[in-house]
Records
---
Amino acid sequence: MNIQMVDLKGQYDKIKEAVNTEIQKCLDNTAYINGPAVKEFQLEFEKYLNVKHVIPCANGTDALQIAMMALDLKPGDEVICPAFTYVATAEVIGLLGLKPVMVDVDPNTFNIEINGLEKYITSKTKAIVPVHLYGQSADMEKIMEFAAKHSLFVIEDNAQAIGSNYTFSDGTVKKTGTIGHIGCTSFFPSKNLGCYGDGGAIMTNDDQLAAKIRMIANHGQEKKYYHKVLGCNSRLDTLQAAVLNVKLQYLDSYSEARNKMAAYYDNHLNVIEGLEIPARSDNSTHVFHQYTLKVKNGKRDVLQKYLSEKNIPSMIYYPLPLYKQEAFEQYVSSDFSLPVTEMLCEEVLSLPIHTEFNQEVSDFVISEINNFFKS
Ligand SMILES: *Cc1c(COP(=O)(O)O)cnc(C)c1O
């Protein structure tokens, strides 16, 4: 059995004809840069998300950086973000001369913990970046309230939760990435809406921010060769947009397939002592970018090794808190510590999950996990 974390080949095989046709169209019209597929994707994605503006860009990290650049922050201004996330979230903050203020997460949802955040607020705190980790939304209602109270911008890092719905207490439902002032996402191949290379997008309902973001992503120009601000060159490739135009139509069915696979794991793994299946948030749907277990009693690494000997891949997202990374040394004192983040870095283990459910494979993964805990 050849088991993979993500079965991109199986997925491609089912949409091959449509994808190849769209790619061929791009090759035939040679509009390689900002071709019609890019605009088409922008409009379809705006419709799907029910958001006023989508600004496609080159990747998810660029999306975060451009979002941050659009806010007119000053060097030394502080941006709150979780310490338990992919490096990109905090990296761009530091790159822009801002200070990442790394905070703890909730042990069940893995998302930013809002209670107790007040103590991190200083006169320099200007923004907060919730990350919708593994596929479900952070508690956006509380985050928006907290941000309003302290006049903060909210930038959602939605690279892992595209397609997820968040429900407010008044019943309003919004797609993740469209709730904060700006949302960012990635179309890296293994993401839930992945292209066949790099890609990303920025979302906002604010017309002025949208204009600024579009300008920054395009060398700071609105009119060609007239540059108002220092920007960058960040475009979604036309060929990638062509792929996304096909795959966007399947995004909801892909989320369903991921949920089906997650439910299958849940049903068979929830009985194992020393293992915790992923908790569901009350107010968010889950799109299972990752299916992440908590392995208790210090057994995570031995379980991973055991699975790997059976040719079952698994991943640790993420093994080291951001504040313990050498690159982030300058932002924290040497004894800085966040208890939940540290615990999760020792306990989390993500199993293969994707859109191509195969019962035989899932049964094998489940039976080997059972064997490990029996022995
Ligand atoms: C993947 C990811 C990014 C970065 O996206 P790229 O397209 O790889 O630059 C940012 N934040 C999170 C949480 C991610 O998972």
---
Amino acid sequence: MKQFDQIPRISLTITPTPIEPLPRFSEVLGGPEIYIKRDDNTGLALGGNKARKLEYLLAEAIAQGCDVVLTEGGLQSNHARMTAAAACRVGMKAILVLKGKEIEEYQGNLLLDRLLDAEIVVVDPDGPLSRRDAMYQKAEELKEQGMKPYVIPTGGSTGLGAMGYIRCAKEIIDQSKALGINFDWVVHPIGSGGTQAGLLAGKKLFEGNFEIFGIAADNEDFEPEILQIGKEIALLLESNLSIEPADINLNYDYFGPEYGVPSEIAIEAMKLLARTEGIIVGPVYTGKALAGFIDLINKGQFKAGEKVLFVHTGGAPAVFAMDIIDQLE
Ligand SMILES: *Cc1c(COP(=O)(O)O)cnc(C)c1O
């Protein structure tokens, strides 16, 4: 087996990110003792979870001598914004293939994409080519022009990208020892599976004793993705580590009305955390996961006496692209 530390990584983040208690938020909810892992503060262009994955992915891009990085996502993709920022850090060009009709307004992540000088290719969801195919076609064109593209799939959720969350799991285990806190649960949003796969693998590798619980931001079966990423991790580490269906905790009750569209309860959750602790979560992932977490406390899934760590995976920049002022009473 390879040592985890032998996997090449470049530094793009400020880690370990802090773990902070949420006393006022916990008191209002009257359930478990809640803490937050500040991965919104990973330090790369307004932060978020993708920065951790990009440390491994761009190390590979550099090793392969690539000069342009391509990735895909929604118009307000945090992953695309952080990929653009990471490309700047290593002197590569970034091309972002984003799904949407057309760009009506440059706001939130989209505005930052342009500030970071990324080239944006918009792919119509009703058009002839899928977003993924459009991305690979673009990569082929670049090769014909003599460039060396590096393609990062959705959310950077490959075995290599997930190494970033193995590293995060180790951080959580080390911090929990240093703080003298035993977390019963680590709760986080899911968008493409890399975060959960990395946390699960990291928990196994470094012997964490918390349960990992993911709340989906999209109506997509993430279990096959997570199992696949688990296999890729095992290959990369030359290890017999394996993620089993029984390891996976996924909840699908809170992604509505649909991916990317803020729900009423998500906005209520965003307000509650902002107004008790001064922390901003995003409307697409963290707000919905937080809304689910709150509801599941009320339903008894997370109980008084337990300690829960909520992973703030970022996403606040999307708030500037959302018309939610009328709901902020
Ligand atoms: C991408 C993203 C997630 C989901 O992480 P995955 O590893 O893709 O499951 C969660 N929160 C935010 C803010 C994200 O941008």
---
Amino acid sequence: MLLTVLLLFSVLRPAQAWLPLEDWESGNVTTSGGGLECVCSVFLPDTSFPADRVQHMQQFTNDLRLEVDIQMNKLVHYQSKLESLLGELKELTLRVAMMENEPGSFIKLDFELLRIELREFEALVSQLKDSLNSSSPMLESLYEEIHNMTLIVNQLETYDRSNLEVIRIEFVKLQRKLEECQAEQEIIKPDIGNCNHTGLMSVSKPVVIQINAHLNPSFRYGGWGKDSKPVRGFESMHWYGGYSTPSVYEFYLYSNYDKLVQRSSFTHHGLPQGYEGTGNNYIIHGNTVYYQADKPFRMSKLNLTSAVFSHRQITKASESFSYFYSPKQYLDFSADEKGLWVMYTPEETKGKLVIAKIDEKSFGIEDEWKTNAFKPQAGNAFMVCGVMYATRPGDVKTEEIYYSYNTETGEEKYMSIPLQKFQEEFVNLHYNPTDQRLYMYSGGYYVSYRVRFNYK
Ligand SMILES: *[C@@H]1O[C@H](CO)[C@@H](O)[C@H](O)[C@H]1NC(C)=O
Ligand SMILES: *[C@@H]1O[C@H](CO)[C@@H](O)[C@H](O)[C@H]1NC(C)=O
Ligand SMILES: *[C@@H]1O[C@H](CO)[C@@H](O)[C@H](O)[C@H]1NC(C)=O
Ligand SMILES: *[C@@H]1O[C@H](CO)[C@@H](O)[C@H](O)[C@H]1NC(C)=O
Ligand SMILES: *[C@@H]1O[C@H](CO)[C@@H](O)[C@H](O)[C@H]1NC(C)=O
């Protein structure tokens, strides 16, 4: 029953914290493993049909009419779906009420996410109300139900934590299942490893997974991600490091995404004295951590297979220019379809980023490109298919991917691709070519985005 309810919850959210509304499709997909059937069926009121999706359609089918018909069909089913959702919401309310009777200690932040869910749920219902007739008694009732649940969630903060932990873990796992479900239905299947597109087109809404494994909101510095070139036996390895200062001194490794969500690491690596890092723009690539060592300042790697450290000085790299949100970010590591990169700033370019290709065997720099991205005004940068993308702060809620530099052609472009933020600041942002996602560590939270490419 719990799973049904959570699934419902997931289906209903309009996806601020995970799936973009425009990504939803109707249909069924059975996920393998866990024996959970993931029925992904969602209605899209045509009034909210988003422009970027329309663009897709135009580009790829030239048959908007057909699409509109499909959307209309979905609307027809809408009424009966709402009915069953309402019933399930009632169940959830009951369950939450049961939890109220089991007092205990508990962590505030988990509730924060639940509240976000509810708010977005509310927004979706409100959207539906607008697109249909607001006189529907069912919608009114749904509204009330959400309101009631928000109250209960608020009260629950003083109660038991263990139940919530179970719910939270199931919740996050389902979130990923639904994502997979939805990816199955994407018009364009992700073409992992392929670079025959003309660059980044858009970025999904953020998927906010959870607070860091230390459950500590003051751990604002750190990073998380997935090995971008996993070795045999560690195909889904995820990693995390978090700290309350810019100093980098440990990493946790998880055998897969679910283990990360459960905060159940299989190992932990502390960096011994003299090997600590800083800046937090590290990644794991080929079971090797690439990071910026602090004293002395240099690029370092820790081979997790052999437990061997290696170092290289980039003599030109300056310690004068950091990214906008965080100090000491001098070396920014990145991995993409073309290999391993580090972005740094020499004194001579007066703050503009230089892209350097790292030869993995020798751990030396094999080539370099000067860009026009001014680092102190950039939030961060990352590589995709040999192209560097730089971001800059928009407002509190938005970061903008504003600049790209193609190392193959030397071409630079200015653009405006919004990146919706969960919190204003972030320290680690990188792309992973194995799943075409951006990974961000933002205000102590794990956040990820899916990217879409232009195929012109
Ligand atoms: C979804 O499942 C239902 C019931 O199992 C079935 O009638 C329907 O055809 C399925 N839809 C798709 C798109 O597979
Ligand atoms: C919505 O309400 C308006 C009047 O308030 C009515 O003209 C219209 O037919 C209604 N539409 C639907 C779909 O019920
Ligand atoms: C919401 O709570 C109020 C007061 O507890 C109750 O009277 C009402 O029936 C609830 N609404 C729903 C839809 O459960
Ligand atoms: C890109 O490459 C893949 C595989 O090589 C191919 O299937 C696909 O059609 C190509 N797409 C374009 C737009 O060229
Ligand atoms: C890490 O060490 C293993 C075992 O010695 C070696 O096979 C592998 O090439 C090393 N990886 C890197 C990136 O140096």
---
Amino acid sequence: MTLHSRDKRYIVNTYNRLPIEIVKAKGSYIYDIDGEKYLDTFMGISVNNLGHNPDYIVDAIKNQLDKYSHVSNYFANEPATKLAELLVENSCAHQVFFTNSGTEATEAALKLVKKYGKMQGKKIILSANKSFHGRTTGSLALTGQAKYQDSFRPLIEDIYHFDYNDIKSLESVVNEDTLGVFIELVQGEGGVTAVTKEFINRLVELRKQYGFLIIADEIQTGLGRAGDLFAYEAYDFKPDLICLAKSLGGGLPLGGLLVSENLSEVFQPGDHGTTFGGNPVSCAGGVAVLEKLLEPKFLDEIKIKGELIKSSLRKLQEKHPSKIKEIRCKGLMIGIELFEEGITLRNKALKEENLLINITSKNVIRLLPSLEITNEEIQTFIEKLDNVMS
Ligand SMILES: *Cc1c(COP(=O)(O)O)cnc(C)c1O
């Protein structure tokens, strides 16, 4: 039996697999069993942000594995402590709670917000339509997309949605009872749309007026992806809580909730916990990630590469005006909105050009290339996409 037939037989059918059998991945490329080489713009859905298996991350992980791989949260561990220190010293946060995934970071935020709400006598939590905050039942209630929610109702109560970037819609749901607002600075799943400065400014004014919390879901946008270490830095505000995951563990499962100083006493021992959270090996990967991102000029380079991809895509749009409707970019988070559904294009790119592109919201190509993508690889990518569209 082939890998794909065994996969179909033995693994619960929740994912649509692409038809290649991977044997190796390095940098911007994936290699299959037949010796084919593919240019990858999925990057593990922004998990492998620094390219596949960079040596310094592999070394950091191996190094920690040789010492100890798990000790439980009865003990402090050096990699988790070091990673928390790096995150706190380079953000507006005061402390970190480590999780194993994005949805768990969202759950931790939800629990913290709910407990805070008990003290404040408030309970209404808001998030945006078309948002994505995870798939466990709590975070799913925040994920403002009926296609993910409908089979699982009733979800948790007291959560309402507003239209992203629509100030009137936000104003119509915010009031004295508003406890917290979850928001992505760039909606990833929702089609790669950045929040506007006006919207954030209004949200921050309303926070001041009503005293609610702003929870930034930076699971996808954080850690350099949107061009800054954290995407909130491009706006004029500080979130009260920040959710991280995806690339945080350098390819290993790891998430985190960054907590501001005024909320650092809300969770007390026993209020929340996870067996694997802060796993030393994942956190050793995370320390290597943070140290790379904090190298001088590293983040500036991301913006420059983002601009290069954007201008190259604009030229491609001029060449294929009936195919490309709009190009949206924030750092190296890039959306190409098409006039039609993207699945045929995706399959053609894979078969004919050995190019791996992801489609979200049916008609948006979502590119999450390596933050270390070279100018030459950008050129190759543009040529391949041009060929597919021609
Ligand atoms: C991926 C993602 C999540 C969920 O993370 P998981 O690790 O899959 O649970 C939540 N929010 C955003 C913005 C994401 O991109």
